[in-house]
Amino acid sequence: MSTIAIVDDDPYIGDMLERVLRAEGYLVLRAYSGTEALLLVAQNRPDLILLDLMLPGLSGEEVLPQLAGIPVIVLSAKVETADKVNALLTGAWDYMTKPFEVRELLARITAQLRRQEAVSVRGRISCGGLLLDTELHQVWYGDEGIRLTKTEFAILKLLMENAKQVIPRSVMLERISADTPDCVESSLKVHISNLRKKLRAASGKDFIEAVWGIGFKLHTDDG
Prior knowledge:
Layout: E1 3-7, H1 11-23, E2 27-31, H2 34-43, E3 48-51, H3 60-63, E4 72-76, H4 81-89, E5 94-97, H5 102-119, E6 120-121, E7 124-127, E8 130-133, E9 138-141, E10 144-146, H6 150-161, E11 167-168, H7 169-176, H8 185-203, E12 208-211, E13 215-218
Parallel strand pairs: 1-2, 1-3, 3-4, 4-5
Antiparallel strand pairs: 6-7, 7-8, 8-9, 9-10, 11-13, 12-13
Helix pairs in contact: 6-8
């Protein structure tokens, strides 16, 4: 049974979403501010988050980069293209404007949970022809093995878990810090450059894309 966190300071919308989601069999968590959302995620990591952008305390835009690895569907009254693009580039998996159709939201939730489930099967992550085994700590492109350092493996794992999403540099350093305490901001570019070269040598493709002023993302040809 999947757990969905609703992060919205509007009690009417939050209560409506909670009733709908519980009727569909989901477990529901609630947060009413950006700060409370980060505390909630730290204590009870949900399977998916419905996030408003206009929140008290930390805004949704400030919270998004800190939710890497969790599917996030933004539900916002902001309808400008710039707001949508910014949200999608900084971590949102999907974006719906308010008011929204409940049936469409439920369909998008189902699609994102399926996507997340497909990301990791028996400890393996696959995208764009790359296959990463989290248990064996090995990576392949097709039948060719790619030898990576511990830091390079941790970076690639994070990027593959969040394929096509931009991972801010600060978030990347935080997420891989437990496995790679030697990797700091001044050396991150070197590790990514070496990783990019190894992936290109094995595949002939440029998998890692730098997004100016933000961070990095894994580029695939999967559509």
